[in-house]
Amino acid sequence: MPGQKNPDGKPIRVALLGCGTVGTEVVRLLTEQAADLTARVGAPVELVGIAVRKPTKHREVPPELLTADAEALVASDVDVVVEVIGGIEPARTLLLSALNAGKSVVTANKALLAEHSGELFAAADASGADLYFEAAVAGAIPLLRPLRESLAGDRITRVMGIVNGTTNFILSGMDATGAGYNETLEEASRLGYAEADPTADVDGFDAASKAAILASLAFHSRVTAADVHREGISSVSAADIAAAKGLGRTVKLLAICERVSHGDEESVSVRVHPAMIPRSHPLASVGGAFNAVFVEADAAGEMMFYGQGAGGAPTASAVLGDLVAVARNRVAGGHGPRESAYAALPARPMGQTPTRYHISLDVEDKPGVLAQVAAVFAEHGVSIAAVRQEGRVADASLVIVTHAATDAALRSTVDKVGGLPIVRDVVSVMRVEGGES
């Protein structure tokens, strides 16, 4: 049980839930690094069972470890439960059972944490067990522990990053080749960077879960996936990418978590959406399936965490790091950091969040067009930062970049502009992050 030292160096008994791509790598690392792990922990780390749906289909692991009865495995004499099955159920029930019994938990389950972290932390606190989840966001990149521990004495103001490798691979490919979204998605699927059903990635669900976890840690507040404004990348066109290049920018799917002040009150804005960022920004050079997260804090200043954000081996590396930490805690009779949600900052609605827009309009080519469009912006209190107009035979292209305004004001401005007789079409609307150009 937690709080009891292990002076005799008895093995730390581990149950593994799931043996897919990540789970298989966890088994491999536990086997190959057994001697080193013993030295690091101060006691042997013994894998005593692996729960899978179909034990006969996992010939890559010793058959005597396999079981289809996850509940019995969790209830057995184990010290740590490692969960890599994903999804909400049965993972939620299994992990609550482990935590309520005082067993430490290591999980890579972003969806579960984004929905039920409060419940899991409450169970961990009640029993004195550990709950670690570094692998839930950004794979092998050490990110959550710095937010949770290293920066615990600082005031984080903003976390912005690329936390989904599939969408970054697609957008990077579109930027490099000029190809469209569908064509690049097909290439990503062919190369194994996109799932057979890529919805969770391309529609932003995966990034939204990770954003909720990041915001919860950064701002000491409980943030769930329901608090995250979410947009995917399926509407990003080759024309959007080209327009970004013309402004010295590139397009990335960003998870953005920030403190927003309104008078004496603070709230948390958490959003996931495509955005144009300057090519000079540290995140702009993050290509392929890599992840990177940019953190801003009062005392520490600006930091960026970069590396492989997905894949079996990188994610298993983060799982093993957590396993070593909780195993050490059990050997020493202590426990790791608990949930910090004291600030309880409310989630700010997207409509009230300050953003900037890049708007491309197809308009009639005649005098007074810009004046009419500008009048609508002024009517809604939205300031124009830059404008570019290109004429053709019968119509023209008008591109506008705004200064910051509430997202609701910007959206209503675009709706009103789209209804002007001189506007043939609102070709594209994309948010802009970083810089004021």
Give a quick set of tags describing it.
elongated; alpha/beta; 18 strands; 437 residues; 14 helices; disordered N terminus; single chain; ten-stranded mixed β-sheet
Low-confidence parts: 1-5
Approximate shape: elongated
- Strand fraction: 25-35%
* Average residue pLDDT: 93
Task: Indicate the percent of residues in helices.
Answer: 25-40%
Largest sheet: 10 strands, mixed
Number of strands: 18
Count every helix, treating DSSP H or I runs of 4 or more residues as helices: 14
Q: Gap between N and C termini, in Å? A: 58 Å
Provide the structure class: alpha/beta
- Rounded Rg: 24 Å
Describe the protein in words.
The structure is a single chain. This protein is α/β, with parallel strands linked by helices and 437 residues long. It has 14 helices and 18 strands. The chain has helices at 21-32, 34-41, 70-75, 91-100, 110-127, 144-150, 165-177, 181-190, 199-202, 205-219, 238-246, 312-332, 369-379, 407-418, and strands at 12-17, 45-51, 66-67, 80-83, 104-107, 131-132, 156-162, 229-230, 249-262, 265-278, 290-297, 301-308, 354-355, 357-364, 384-391, 395-402, 405-406, 423-432. The strands form three sheets. Strands 7, 8, 9, 10, 11, 12, 14, 15, 16 and 18 form a ten-stranded mixed beta sheet that branches. It has a six-stranded parallel beta sheet with strand order 3-2-1-4-5-6, with helices on both faces. Strands 13-17 form a two-stranded antiparallel sheet. Helix 1 packs across helix 12. The longest helix has 21 residues, at 312-332. The termini are far apart.
